[in-house]
């Protein structure tokens, strides 16, 4: 896009355990320029802040946008964030980040005001503002990855709870005394529909000797099955892959139904890697929700795939910054 | 209390399947006068509206408050309510009420503006405004009765969802493929910790032949065990009653933990009949929450008993009316 000098801009930053990506964004979610660096997650706050500042500088310099028109930076962080304090309370993928000021050194390094948020919350605000949630009043989003992240937007504002840890919907218990979760508890949604349980589910079925594309795709070692392999095999009609998505969709659907009963939103967005399976996963989710959520809650809510893909983090950061610094929303 | 002519008043109405109660209330939650009638739930909307109007008129005439100082009526209804439309969408205890205008005929019959809400939501706003939730930012309430009602207040406002059915936390699924619920689904919190499952739990233990006060208290017919009998026997140290409360507290605790992970509130209020057991129920709830909710969510939230008792409905109605007609909150 060509920059327009009469409208405000922000910088959206997507901070991951491996890479940092940044782009300048306008109020319509158009991207201008790009910066991309290694996040140096194991080298401490100073090193990572310097990397982020480099990505931001590269994004600004390649954007064609006058620096004076940029209101600030919005950044999603994989962890628990206290946005008003600029503090990262907990970020398991970054060494030495727990309870640490990140906003202020980043402001000093870039000369721009900074607002941070949890990456799943930020992605949800991105979908609400620029993607699948546009036009909704209350939106819930699940991001299906290694774990299950979630975000909640009510009347235009992210709800992150009184200490910044909401909405941890991946750790709702849907099967009391069920399988052990990575968090140490039992029967969490994530323990039934996170990356590992999905792959184990497929491997268990394949172990029973039925023919499946997954055997060859995994190099005849079922430990190497990935969600992407399952999605692809299901799209080709592989029975075990389809069953795996059906059963996974059942558990995700119970989590969606619970969130729907509790919050009665008008839009539910499903994102993350395995959501790439599309209707092969969304249909079992929808069928489960139809029988497990209240009729009036089901009737009021559409269940849709995320739209922003790889740009969800950047656009979510941008939406967060526009809300904080631009008077949007 | 003696009425003060310089402050505004409202009428709080508690509509139940058997009785209607009304009282005039000031902004501090003091009650003035009372009206009480049969609700004539099976005789149609007109009959019940006339009964409510009688209760309101009695409350006003016995209150000593000048009628001109009364801003309006707030009423909790056991069902799904569309507050802005004055419509009751669903009220299983009242014949002919589904999808019916109730606010307008009540306004005509009383000459006062009317705001309605679901009884559990309204009770939660009452506790938030006048009771156990005072001073909190985000409050969740469970009302443990025949079913499990719930309410959610965020930044002073009840959140009832986009179609008025939130937050149905009693129908969150905590045990996939678990026991059948009255709603037709399986494994809902209510199917594990509603009135009947609590009584069945005690009866099953007693059937196994261990000595228990419940045998005599139920007239040697275990079908007649009530939650009140269980609470009383537990207070006297009855082993089976204590075990029943412990197991019930475990399931309620899972529901509380889920709500806490999803919403990260700073106050959780437990009300309703069986909550009368006090710490005998609250302690197993707290212990379950401590191990099943995120540490930072647990740390941020107190779990307390409801304070308003039998006046929760009236004071909740009053809080709702003060918010709508009095510019409170």
Task: Give the structure's gist in a few sentences.
The structure is a homodimer of 329-residue chains. Chain A has 329 residues and is an alpha/beta fold. In chain A, 39% of the residues lie in helices and 21% in strands.
Could you characterize the architecture of this molecule?
- Two copies of one chain form a homodimer.
- The first copy, chain A, is α/β, with parallel strands linked by helices and 329 residues long.
- Chain A folds into two domains: 9-126 and 311-325, Nucleotidyltransferase, domain 5, CATH 3.30.420; 134-306, Nucleotidyltransferase, domain 5 (2-Layer Sandwich).
- The first copy, chain A, is 39% helix and 21% strand.
- The first copy, chain A, has eleven helices and 13 strands.
- A five-stranded mixed sheet of chain A has the order 3-2-1-4-8.
- In chain A, a hairpin with a 4-residue loop joins strand 2 and strand 3 (31-38).
- The longest helix of chain A is centred in the last third of the chain and has 25 residues, at 239-263.
- The first copy, chain A, is globular.
- The mean pLDDT of chain A is 94.
